[in-house]
Every structure is written in structure tokens, then in C-alpha cells.
């Protein structure tokens, strides 16, 4: 359900920005950036043709009390709008206090990370001060710039839509969603890479989110895996979050329980979001350094499957997981599991390579 919003007395500060209500004296700044070709079109509206048009929009910003001006170096250079979403389109969100974000930034300010900085602060305001439980945010499928802003702020894929623009085209739109629980667990919008794996049986919305942590433990080009001997099945050590636990605590506990190794250091790397039916499975991957001396503690199901820790050459692990599609007909669970681990290992290798190239 749409929550009530009134920002008329709200001023938010970030290291470089002030977010505040629009004022009549901002007209020239608004016209300056909104009349530039290639800005508004990315959000579905044509460039402003004259100051009268900008004046009309400015009046609506002031009257509707839901759009922040982004002030940077003394100028209004963009907006973050806390828009109403269409409740008929998303009946699954009826029990959540929700709004939808929209944003635009002056072209000369692009690429400095200003919008992620602004959006993260607006998200904090909405979750902490206003008490929202969920925030929607969409972008045209081709708008990679906006996609990156949303990814950096912690949004996850929700569904595919179409959007009718003010200049008469119909664009494919990706709608993302961020729920409060996710935002709290994943560090309040810390910049991160999130990879989506959307199953063929996805309902095009999710109503439940589950969290897990897994460890990427690589020493001398060998990786530590959990091996279920009775099933001949491999996976990265890790598992589901327990009540009251942080993702980091979950990672440390799961690695020790499954492998008997103690985690000394742990660095968050990226998340993978998997979508099956109406569920989202979010796994946080950590790079871990380990030593002996932990205590293995297996569940009955893990004992039954013959679970044991095994070091494998990284290349070999990649090869095993690359066969995910071989299980498409016989074992959907294993197909999904291997696809996820293959995606994670590839991302890890890509990052390692990038680091080495930069060194
Ligand atoms: C989307 C937008 C708000 C991004 O704001 P920003 O402050 O530049 O965001 P960032 O600095 O984090 O850059 C986001 C991505 O834009 C791309 N980018 C950076 N500088 C760029 C530039 N000068 N030109 C084009 N793209 C650029 C990069 O891919 C970057 O991702 P990266 O950090 O992974 O390299 C801004 O591009 C914009 O206002 N676009 C027009 C309106 C719009 O698309 N609104 C969203 C509608 S859903």
C-alpha cells in the first residue's frame, strides 16, 4: 500500500549533497538541466522546451511535497521523487508500506556517484524515519546507468513491465524492489555487485525472501568445497541465515560447521539473487581466509548425505559446476545449485583477474 509522504520540512544531508524541497528560486537550475537532450528521455519525458514548462513542473514539485531537489555545489542539479505506485498492479505488496522512487541528474554531473549517494540517503530516510517496509524502483531495460544506480543501492529484480512514455513510445521496463529486512542485513546499501538468476518457473513477483551466506575459500589455486559423497554433489560451504544472525556471522558459523575450519578473515564480495516460483533466494558470498582448529558440526541431513570438506583445484571446481545444464531433465535442484556456484566462481575469477591486471 502507498504510504503517506510529506517532505515539506525535510532536509537530508550527505557528504556532498543536500536533499531538500524545491523552491521557486530553483526555476533556472531546473530549466538548465531538464532542457538538455538525452536526460529526461531516459526517465520517460521529453526535454523541457521553455521556462514556462519548467515552471509548471516546479509548481507540481512544490505542491505535491514528494520530490527532493538535489543540491550540489550551490545548485539544484536533479531530483529524487518518492512517487505513488500503482496498487492494482502489485496486489502482493498490499500489506507493505511502500512507495516508488524516480530520479534524474543533470548531465554534467553524471559519473561521480552522486545519484547513488542521494538515493541511499532517501532510502535511509524512508526506512528509518518514515517507516516504509518496501521501495519499488524501475528503469527502462536499456537504461544501464539507472540499473547500476539501483544495483549500487541494493535493489533487487522484481518483475518485467512495459511503460508508456510521455513522448509516445512503449518501453520494456525492469521493476526492482528493496525490502527493509534486506537493506538492514546487507549493510544499508553498501556498494555491491548483485547477480540475478531468474528461473523459468518464476511467477514474475516474489513474496518471500530467504537469506544465506557462502564462503569462497581459495588457497594456492585450490578451493575448499563441501562434498556430499552419497550424492556425488559439490557446493561452496555455507547455508541459511538463522534468526538474529548477521550475514557475516552466518558465513563464519556455516563454514566452521561444514568444514571444521575457523574463519579468520571474511570479506563480502557480491550477492546472487535466485528467483524460483514466488521466492527470492539471496546468497551473500564472502572471500574467507581459514585455519584449522574449528569444530565440524553437521546436521542429520548432512551426515546422511556423507558431507565432507574437500580441497579441489579451482579449475576442476569450475569444470564440475559448468555442467549445470546436464541436470536440467533429471535434477532441477542440482541444476540450480551448480548454476549458482558456477556463476559465483566465474565472478570470483573475473574479479581476481581484474585485481591482478590493476596491480
Ligand atoms: C541514471 C543517473 C541518475 C545516474 O546517476 P550518476 O550519479 O551518474 O550515477 P553513477 O555515477 O553511479 O553512474 C552510474 C553508471 O552510469 C554510467 N556512467 C558514468 N558516467 C557516465 C557518463 N558520463 N555518461 C554515460 N554514462 C555514464 C556508468 O556505467 C556508471 O556505472 P559504474 O559506476 O558501474 O561505472 C543519470 O545517468 C541520469 O540522470 N540519467 C538520466 C535520467 C535517468 O536515467 N533516470 C533514471 C530513470 S529510471
How large is the radius of gyration? Answer: 23 Å
Biggest sheet strand order reads 1-2-3-4-5-6-8-7
Count of discrete structural domains? 2
Question: By CATH's scheme, which homologous superfamily of the largest domain applies?
Answer: Gcn5-related N-acetyltransferase (GNAT)
Uncertain runs are none
Which band does the percent of strand residues land in? 25-35%
Q: What is the subunit organization of this protein? A: single chain
Structural class: alpha+beta
Protein described:
- By secondary structure, the chain is an alpha+beta fold.
- It folds into 2 domains: 12-191, Gcn5-related N-acetyltransferase (GNAT) (Aminopeptidase), CATH 3.40.630; 208-358, Nucleoside Triphosphate Pyrophosphohydrolase, CATH 3.90.79.10.
- The chain has helices at residues 27-34, 51-64, 114-130, 144-152, 180-185, 247-259, 300-304, 314-321, 332-358, and strands spanning 12-13, 18-21, 67-72, 75-83, 98-105, 134-140, 156-164, 170-179, 193-198, 208-216, 218-219, 222-228, 233-235, 238-240, 262-276, 279-291, 307-313.
- Strand 7 and strand 8 form a beta hairpin.
- Helix 1 (27-34) packs across helix 2 and helix 8 packs antiparallel against helix 9 (332-358).
- It is elongated.
- It starts with 11 loop residues before the first strand and ends with a helix.
- The protein binds coenzyme A.
- Coenzyme A (COA) binds at residues 39, 42-43, 103-105, 110-116, 139, 143-146, 148-149.
Amino acid at each position: 500500500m502507498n504510504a503517506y509522504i510529506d517532505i515539506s520540512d525535510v532536509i537530508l544531508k550527505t557528504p556532498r549533497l543536500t536533499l531538500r524541497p524545491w523552491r521557486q528560486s530553483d526555476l533556472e537550475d531546473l530549466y538548465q538541466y531538464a532542457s538538455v537532450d538525452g536526460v529526461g528521455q531516459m526517465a520517460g519525458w521529453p526535454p523541457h522546451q521553455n521556462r514556462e514548462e519548467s515552471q509548471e513542473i516546479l509548481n507540481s514539485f512544490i505542491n505535491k511535497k514528494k520530490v527532493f531537489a538535489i543540491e550540489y555545489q550551490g545548485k539544484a542539479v536533479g531530483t529524487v521523487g518518492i512517487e505513488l505506485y500503482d496498487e492494482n498492479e502489485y496486489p502482493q505488496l498490499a500489506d507493505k508500506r511502500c512507495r516508488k522512487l524516480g530520479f534524474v541528474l543533470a548531465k554534467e554531473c553524471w559519473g561521480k556517484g552522486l545519484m547513488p549517494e542521494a538515493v541511499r540517503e532517501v532510502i535511509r530516510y524512508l526506512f528509518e524515519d518514515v517507516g516504509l517496509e518496501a521501495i519499488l524502483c524501475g528503469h527502462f531495460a536499456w537504461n544501464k546507468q539507472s540499473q547500476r544506480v539501483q544495483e549500487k543501492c541494493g535493489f533487487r529484480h522484481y518483475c518485467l513491465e512495459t511503460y508508456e512514455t510521455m513522448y509516445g513510445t512503449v518501453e520494456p521496463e525492469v521493476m526492482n524492489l528493496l525490502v527493509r529486512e534486506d537493506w538492514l542485513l546487507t549493510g544499508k546499501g553498501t556498494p555491491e555487485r548483485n547477480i540475478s538468476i531468474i528461473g523459468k518457473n518464476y511467477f514474475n513477483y516474489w513474496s518471500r525472501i530467504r537469506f544465506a551466506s557462502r564462503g569462497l575459500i581459495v588457497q594456492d589455486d585450490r578451493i575448499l568445497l563441501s562434498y556430499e559423497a552419497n550424492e556425488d554433489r559439490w557446493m561452496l560451504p555455507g547455508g541459511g541465515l538463522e534468526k538474529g544472525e548477521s550475514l557475516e556471522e552466518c558465513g563464519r558459523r556455516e563454514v566452521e560447521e561444514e568444514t571444521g575450519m575457523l574463519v579468520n578473515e571474511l570479506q563480502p564480495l557480491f550477492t546472487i539473487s535466485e528467483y524460483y516460483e514466488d521466492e527470492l533466494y539471496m546468497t551473500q558470498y564472502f572471500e574467507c581466509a581459514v585455519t584449522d582448529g574449528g569444530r565440524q558440526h553437521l546436521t542429520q541431513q548432512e551426515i546422511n548425505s556423507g558431507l565432507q570438506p574437500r580441497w579441489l583445484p579451482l579449475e576442476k571446481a569450475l569444470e564440475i559446476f559448468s555442467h549445470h545444464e546436464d541436470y536440467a531433465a533429471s535434477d532441477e535442484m542440482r541444476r540450480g545449485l551448480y548454476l549458482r556456484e558456477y556463476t559465483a566462481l566465474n565472478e570470483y575469477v573475473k574479479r581476481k583477474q581484474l585485481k591482478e591486471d590493476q596491480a
